[in-house]
Here is the input.
Amino acid sequence: MSRKRRDASLVLLFNTLRAVFAASIVVVLSGPTWATTYAELDDAEVERIVGLLSESAHGVAPPCRDRTAWSQSERRAILERVLRRANLLIQKEFPAWSDATYLEYTKTGDRRTGDEMMHARRSWIVPLVLAECFEYQGRFIASIQKVIEELVGQRTWVLSAHDERLDAFYGKKYSVDLFAAELGLQLADAAYLLQEEIDPRVRRRVLETLETRIFAPMRDSFVSGKGNSWLKSPSNWNAVCLKGVVAAALTVLPNRLDRALFTAAAKHYSMYYLDGFRDDGYAVEGLGYWNYGFGQFIELRERLWRATHGGVDLFADRKVREIALFGSRFPMFPGNAAAFGDSVLGTKPDPTALSYIHDSLDPCVVFPKKVDLTKLFMLFPREQASPRRHCDDTQSISRRQYFENAGVLVSRPLAESQSHLAVTIKADGNGPHSHNDIGSYAIALGDQQPVGDPGGPRYYTKRSFGAHRYESKVLNSYGHPVPVVAGQLQVNATKVMPKVLSTSFSEARDEIVIDMAPAYAVPDLKSLKRRMQYDRRGAGSVMIEDAFAFGAPEFFEVALTTHGNWKRLNDTTLVFDAGGRRLQATIDAPGTFDLLGERISENGTEFDRIGIRLKEPRKSGAIRVLFQETH
Here is the structure.
């Protein structure tokens, strides 16, 4: 049979299956009998996985009717909190859907109101279902059914910014985005947990809508290799969408071969997500998106592990272990990490992810058991954990973490030191959600960051992605603690390969030298080297030096950025205050310079930028800033 005829037969087969599914919610195929060709998946691997799966679909938690499981004491505290939230919800009106609100993004580029509307509607389903499973008196069933019917009848599950041509809005073509994947899983979990407790008609509508909006579009992509481009993306989209789609499939699809197809897809396509990390585990999207994306990858791993009885383990790859440990290795102090990329200042490693990683992989780094138990896989943990490595000294949190593949250095004080000072500096480490921030750094004083990278926007607009992204002062290099060279900002950081020229590490001192010249399209720039020196002795210090050389005299400027307060003590000294922590900056520059303060406020992020601008053009020189804690 020719490939063209085979593809045509395949389309006919899938259309037939959809019709049968919608009518009866029973896929008639009973075994691995689909003769088809996938764009990237191996037929033999799909059939192998069939043998790992149970005959029937299972959720990650027992159905609500299992009163022994749902009544265990260790779940009562979190479920009682969920019950209180559910009791408040049933006294309110369910948030209404508004076409006009959804279409605001299409008209003005503002996505906030539409996103908020959709998230408000989705936020009801989990607490109501968990409350009913906990209490099991039928008190929430009517509200649950109303919410389900609202959600499955909702005009689209795709966020407005992800549906620019409005194909999903008008029902022309369905695709899966971050929101749709998560909502699909929540509805699948609800259908599995409640089972016969809800009206069969409502349950049927859930399964029909999942087939139309989630499963069928994904099968088409598995076959054709087209659509749902996040399947081959190295960004958090890959992990988030795969988790939602595949977990929903494992929870409700009746046919084992069908579930094997989605399982094989998760195993294969999740490798694209891992490509977005450096081999040393550095997360180029920043800590915030490590929390989001890798947190979803964790749940995908857990759901696959359980469904295949350990036969598919996404943690088996050594690189995954390095990525998993990023959350504990990256912070300067516990809970205080540089906000590179689109991470928001104050972002902390997700405690649920850290707890899971500790339990699964790393017995050396111990974190408190603070977990989000509304995640079903954490609410009902496996009795037998996955294999763990033995602890050795190389795994423990140390005075230094150098992500060599990304040129990112985290320098901390000695464990026995009284110093509160730490620093993170980056040469590269850019990818999705990158800013133009080569050479950026953040300085920590205990739990505060008085100086350094201001972090990303708190909300996105149409300009946040695409051709106009780097017009933003929050995203381009102007709003980062890096130089302005001959009046020019940095070029697109994702197109540049900066080089770490040297490193020197000792118990007393760390030093890194970065070649920053490739980050600037200035033909007359002969060299630009940023040297960071971190001294652990005594109270500690951080020195940032920018040494430049031009073919002819040019203007040169270095910026300091802060979310705190600052004041000028004298011609060469500034003091920054954040949360009661005070950092003194002493400036050493060739000739005289101006200090130019500017308040930057964009997309919910506000901070001060202080430009140290040489008054006269120079052919060469260096600006040094020495940072020390002061009282």
Observations:
- The two ends are 81 Å apart (CA to CA).
